[in-house]
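For consistency, the fold was encoded as tokens, as this record shows:
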Amino acid sequence: MNATAHDRVLAAIRFERPDRAPIWTPGFDDGFVRAWRKWKRVGEEAHPLTHYRNDTVILIGDERFFPSQAGFLRREGEYEISNNGWGCLTRSIPGGYFSEEIDRVLKEPRDLDRLQFEPATLPSRYADLPSATDGRCAFSKIGGLYIRSHFLRGEAELLTDMAGDEAFCDALFDRVTDHFEQMALETLRRTQTYDTGLFVYDDMAGLKGPMFSPRMFERYFLPRYHRIITSCRAAGCRHFFFHSDGNVAPLLDLLIEAGFEGVNPLEPRCNPGLLELRRRYGRKLVLIGGVCNTQILPRADRREIEAHLRPLLELARDGGVMLGMASVPAEMPPEAYDDAMQWMDSSMVRRG
């Protein structure tokens, strides 16, 4: 009997041998989905998410600080003015993908004292949680302390604060930690994902390294993440994972110290490869990702794709690995993605 996605993923997390390599589910760019449907000659109802084996799904509530305030406010010429629920007014062109922040409630550090985040227990935050996961292994998710704080304050402003105003940053990060600790506990309770665990998504790195020094991570984020993990572990959550695009290698030791046991997506263009990370960290770190979506797959060379995936699949044989990529961009050739997915799906069957 074939293992379920839940069994397969948990085996990998426990460093046991799975029946085949678990496949991490990426995000799909709409442009790629359209190109893939045209290449496959399928209708609008078809989607690569369900066409291929994808073993994971992320469950997340509405984490915004002020969800009841979110929505369209008015038109100004060609622009729509909206409240994004994070404490910002945004301006966008109707139908456009991007928006511009034009005002925020936390313009000055003194503004923090008057802010009251809406409760994490609001039922409306969880109204859109799916009732079924299509057989995939479900994890809970919260956003991270850095990225959600700069949603409220602005990234350039927050980085300046971190360098020059420790007292304000402590107050801000404590408030954000309180909110996301409660979001984590409530999301876990409602999804009953205690056995699989919690992902924290906190994009804090670029291609060359983190947006701030490891010392700043240790100063501001390590103790607060340790607090969230300790609280969720006491509630019954067994596993904790960290997501950040970019080069997070300088932070890996600190993430492990905080209590995280796995990292995603480990983009090979800017991180050590999975084999090197396994040599460095052994069973201390579950490796999630590692498939190149920016260079190797976009070149659509079958031999190159096979050569890239073969050692990753061999590494995954003994557990501790979920293979996948950060995302599937519009420029990804559908045939290259198809080749990679078929290779990952068929090449890691258990050998006796």
In short: The chain has one domain: 5-66+107-346. The CA atoms of residues 76 and 91 lie 9 Å apart.
